């Protein structure tokens, strides 16, 4: 890759960084592509990792990581790391802080809270109605309706969605498995050729979910992502990315839109798998 292919300026946001990766992906030589795939899938680790650690994760020499930084537009690794340290510095407050903030606003009565969460859910669903892409949904359903077993993973806030999907798949007799991390067991050995993974994660992205998606991709499994945006770290690992907008109140984020999308995907997958013409032999 010559200097003309090197970006003129460094990305100024994490979103712009992922957009730059997507634009460069097909033009990178093997080692730089390995860097792009690993770093894109583990962007949350850039802020706390060394060049050597990222190189080991991508299975490339450290010099390849340094060259990758320059290709993306940074002067070096330090500049790229600074972007991610600044981006990930603002973290969601802990629950004690959130509750204290609600008390200070005198918004802690049950009726007031119910009204606020109803409004957050309404706004989330309205945003979903405006942004839902039929082609993306069809792609996700097509991918997962032709796999042997649908593996479902989602931790922390995404866990209620993942467990609901596993429940619905069970009721529809769709072969599935919930990866819940119980006892720190990953069940990676259950990922078999011909299976698919439905991965669900939102900022701050779950490392466990990203790791399982990375492993599934490495094993050749189909991966569908249910996440917040197309520039999510899951995007580079997925065959289909379904973005879901969610509005928060008091730093408590709604799941209304996510549950709606999960319901639609589950029922559509169950219906299509029940169709003799489309079901996997």
UniProtKB/TrEMBL annotation:
Residue intervals of the SIS domain: 140-277
One MF annotation (Gene Ontology) recorded for this entry: carbohydrate derivative binding
InterPro entries: Homeodomain-like_sf (IPR009057), HTH_RpiR (IPR000281), RpiR-like (IPR047640), RpiR-like_SIS (IPR035472), SIS_dom (IPR001347), SIS_dom_sf (IPR046348), WH-like_DNA-bd_sf (IPR036388)
All residue ranges annotated as the HTH rpiR-type domain in the record: 15-91
PROSITE patterns named in the record: HTH_RPIR, SIS
Keyword annotations: DNA-binding, Transcription, Transcription regulation
Keyword rRNA processing attached: no
Gene Ontology BP annotations: carbohydrate derivative metabolic process
One Pfam family this sequence matches: HTH_6
Domain of life: Bacteria
Annotated protein name in UniProt: MurR/RpiR family transcriptional regulator
Organism annotation: Aliigemmobacter aestuarii
Organism ancestry: Bacteria, Pseudomonadati, Pseudomonadota, Alphaproteobacteria, Rhodobacterales
């Amino acid at each position: 890759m010559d200097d003309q292919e090197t970006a003129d300026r460094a990305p100024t946001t994490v979103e712009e960084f992922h957009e730059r990766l997507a634009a460069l992906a097909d033009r990178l030589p093997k080692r730089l592509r390995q860097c792009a795939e690993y770093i894109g899938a583990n962007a949350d680790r850039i802020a706390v990792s060394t060049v050597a650690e990222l190189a080991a994760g991508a299975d490339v020499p450290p010099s390849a990581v340094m060259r990758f930084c320059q290709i993306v537009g940074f002067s070096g690794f330090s500049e790229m790391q600074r972007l991610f340290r600044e981006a990930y510095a603002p973290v969601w407050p802990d629950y004690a802080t959130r509750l204290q903030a609600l008390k200070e606003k005198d918004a802690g009565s049950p009726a007031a809270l119910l009204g606020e969460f109803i409004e957050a859910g309404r706004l989330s669903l309205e945003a979903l109605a405006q942004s839902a892409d039929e082609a993306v949904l069809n792609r996700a359903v097509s991918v997962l309706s032709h796999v042997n077993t649908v593996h479902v993973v989602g931790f922390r806030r995404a866990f209620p969605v993942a467990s609901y999907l596993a429940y619905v798949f069970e009721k529809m007799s769709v072969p599935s498995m919930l990866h819940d991390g119980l006892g720190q067991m990953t069940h990676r050995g259950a990922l078999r050729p011909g299976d698919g993974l439905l991965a669900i994660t939102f900022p701050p992205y779950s490392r466990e979910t990203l790791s399982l998606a990375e492993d599934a991709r490495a094993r050749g499994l189909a991966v569908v992502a249910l996440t917040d945006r197309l520039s999510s770290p899951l995007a580079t690992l997925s065959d289909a990315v379904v973005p879901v907008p969610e509005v928060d109140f008091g730093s408590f984020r709604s799941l209304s839109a996510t549950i709606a999308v999960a319901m639609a995907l589950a029922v559509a997958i169950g219906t299509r798998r029940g169709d003799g013409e489309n079901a996997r032999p």
